Amino acid sequence: PAVTLRADYRPPEWLVPETALDFDLDPAATRVRTTLSVTRNGSHAEPLRLDGAGQEPLAVKVDGVLVNDWRIEGEQLVVPLAGDAHSVETEVVIAPDRNTQLMGLYASGGNLCTQCEAEGFRRITFFPDRPDVLSRYRVRMTADSARFPILLANGDPVAQGDAGEGRHWAEWNDPFPKPSYLFALVAGDLAVNRGSFTTRSGREVQLGIWVRASDLPRTDHALHALKLSMAWDERVYGREYDLDVFNIVAVDDFNFGAMENKGLNIFNSRYILADPDTATDYDYDGIAAVVAHEYFHNWSGNRITCRDWFQLSLKEGFTVYRDQGFSADQGSPAVKRIEDVRSLRAAQFPEDAGPLAHPVRPDAYQEISNFYTATIYNKGAELIRMMATILGPQAFRAATDLYFDRFDGTAATCEDFVACMEESSGRDLGQFRLWYGQAGTPRVSASVDHAPGGGRATLRLAQRVPATPGQPDKQPMVLPLKLRLFGAETGRPLTDERLVLLDQPAETVTFEAITERPILSINRGFSAPVVIESDRTAADLAFLSAHDDDPFARYEAMQQLMLDTLVAGAIEGAADHDAVVAAIFNTLENPELDYAFMAEAVLLPSESFIGDQLAVVDPEAVHRARETLRRAIGQGLADSWRQLYAVLQQGPYAYTPDAKGKRRLRGVALGYIAASGDADTGRLAFRQFEAADNMTDRQAALTTLANGDYAEREAALDIFYNRYADNSLVLDKWFQTQALSSRADTAALVEQLAQHPDFSLANPNRARSLIGAFGVNQRAFHTAGGAGYRFLADQLIALDTLNPQTAAKLLPPLGRWRRFDEQRAALMRAELERIVAVPSLSKDMFEQASKSLE
Ligand code: B3K
Ligand code: ZN
């Protein structure tokens, strides 16, 4: 298979200052006429090479004259050109209604829309489809007036009119040069929720959220989040919006969350549509975060884009960091940080420890779609966060100002970004750059020595970066570790918070005037994305969970305490639960803590994260250990849970931080009541399910019922299904809740659900809600015998023929075979081999599956 190497980057041979596109839109046959003004870049004799995928050039003109000396080489259209500047016209016909890959121009719910990142534009027309070719686009669309009354594209609307014969046309112009991956158009029958925003320099921007008419009542939250994002980016980064319109369109068929096309974001409808009856608090938060993320891309991604796809984290890591900051500012920064670390550990740590591990700035790829990963996005954001920590807030802001100023209108690299950080702060980030090139999660061991009665404490730190595919030997990295010591006897802080930059394999840090035994609080705020191995005892961790002044560190101490208990339980079959139960009790009794934080702090680590701590994952042992501890917590604190459950009951639904926190903790309380095994659980959960006036409470009750063996279980699932039969986003929850169930028969149930009339692989959300959720349900997926592996492989092989990009994203659970016992490993490998052997497998799947076998 063809491999693209970062080291092979060459500047483009031809530039395309202007692009004019003329679409004659029709779902079955859309004619695209493209006029490119091209200029030779430097002195060379190379012909013009335009990328295409799947279409034939019907005609090629140079400077208005039909030519026939063009040729097709691989998938490129090669046009010899004599001079240094020409106009090149091509014409193709494409079929959006047969586009099941959902890349390029495709049909969704009767409308037409586009997705071009990373390499979808070449499925629309011939073009140098690479992010460093920036062009000004003018777009004309002609379409049936009745079927497609709304015609949208990037930039500002210029003109529109009647085209006769029941057709109409519209023209849009985007004054900002952009790479082809940011091109977008939408044609359809859409209703709009309009708003406006006045920028700080007084420009009035017209905002529009476009959806099918029946969804209009579910768009206010997204519109509000958009306005908040625009204000936040002005205030926090000094970034102002630059066009007169900003449109967002929601579509049901979408390969991922959303897309930041210039002035015309296109969203997966699940990240736009919300009302209390159909969306959970978690959905509301996700919508605000994604709306903000895509909006922030206007500067970090669009005004400054990536030179090549190896630099993807330049825009994605930075933009995730920006949206994390936005979300933190809307609610509780501590809870947001906990959530972000939780998802880093759920998705990125395993990726970094497995066969698909890659650096934040990769060196090679077969299919770039496979590199939209937790590493590029979430670890990438952690790199930005570490630089912000090292520089401090003022210097960091000065550095981002410099970056935005210097690289505006260009295609930049990760190196350019780091250089701005250095230049504006005067700090040397030479060694820090290893974070971009070395994969793997660093492990840090930490222990404190203190002689009783002595005044000095010595902290010994050592780091180790594990080997990853293609990178057997690693250099020590720069790890910014925030730490503080607390006194074991008095409970008081013994030091200020210190930032230690660990940049050697091993280092010691000394503290003077330490008069009592110190307890180490380290990696506070999760200042570095590493694993800490320390010799802190259960008592130390319990102490920190109660007294640490850093909320994240407090949460972390509790997690570590739970994890130690769970690992012992999984390995030895039994463990002492008292310390965890007591620590949870203290947390629930602490009047200084808010409900949302409490809810996060008392949740046990997931089964997969517990599995990640074991040399060989034993899914049943992990499940048992976790259920046993859950039961001990449920029974040991039965009164607390009952009391909370009663006290946290609320009047009519409100979307406020306080109400959200209460719902969250009440859901957790219900879970622990269920875990206690009390006989009235089914009744309690069903009552909540029926009485709920919002999806958060209803879904929490349904989850509890779906996880157990209650008489009310089936009734609740049926009621839920019937109530929401015409809302596909809620039906996704119905599938997902069952696929995530901790019941022993989940694997069999999921196989049945795949036969359900509402199940379809053609819709990515639906495929992910069942197949994706099943793959991350450790107990169900790894049921002995390998039926889960076979099922996943069958589904992926089928999905690959429709939508390779989405199929390949669901493969990683099979690639984790090294983590399991021999029998499971052999069964998992056999399925990977079966996938690799499929004739005409996509390169997306081939890359993921073959790398997973290595
Ligand atoms: N930039 C897009 C992701 C495109 C994924 C292409 N496979 C959305 C985002 O990160 O904001
Ligand atoms: Zn992004």
TrEMBL record:
Q: Which residues form the Peptidase M1 alanyl aminopeptidase C-terminal domain?
A: 539-854
Q: Which residues form the Peptidase M1 membrane alanine aminopeptidase domain?
A: 222-432
| Cofactors that this protein relies on | Zn(2+)
Catalyzed reactions: Release of an N-terminal amino acid, Xaa-|-Yaa- from a peptide, amide or arylamide. Xaa is preferably Ala, but may be most amino acids including Pro (slow action). When a terminal hydrophobic residue is followed by a prolyl residue, the two may be released as an intact Xaa-Pro dipeptide
What the entry lists under InterPro entries is as follows: Aminopeptidase_N-like_N (IPR045357), Aminopeptidase_N-like_N_sf (IPR042097), PepN_Ig-like_sf (IPR038438), Peptidase_M1 (IPR001930), Peptidase_M1_dom (IPR014782), Peptidase_M1_pepN (IPR012779), Peptidase_M1_pepN_C (IPR024601), Peptidase_M1_pepN_C_sf (IPR037144)
> What's the family?
Belongs to the peptidase M1 family.
Q: Which UniProt keywords apply?
A: Aminopeptidase, Hydrolase, Metal-binding, Metalloprotease, Protease, Zinc
Name the gene.
pepN
| Record domain Peptidase M1 alanyl aminopeptidase Ig-like fold: where | 440-534
Claim: Metal-binding is one of the keywords in the record = yes
Species annotation: Sphingomonas aurea
Q: Look up keyword RNA-binding and say if it applies.
A: no
Enzyme Commission number, as recorded: 3.4.11.2
Domain named Aminopeptidase N-like N-terminal: which ranges?
A: 89-182
Provide the protein name.
Aminopeptidase N
Q: Which GO terms describe its molecular function?
A: alanyl aminopeptidase activity
Q: Give the first-level EC class, as a single word.
A: hydrolase
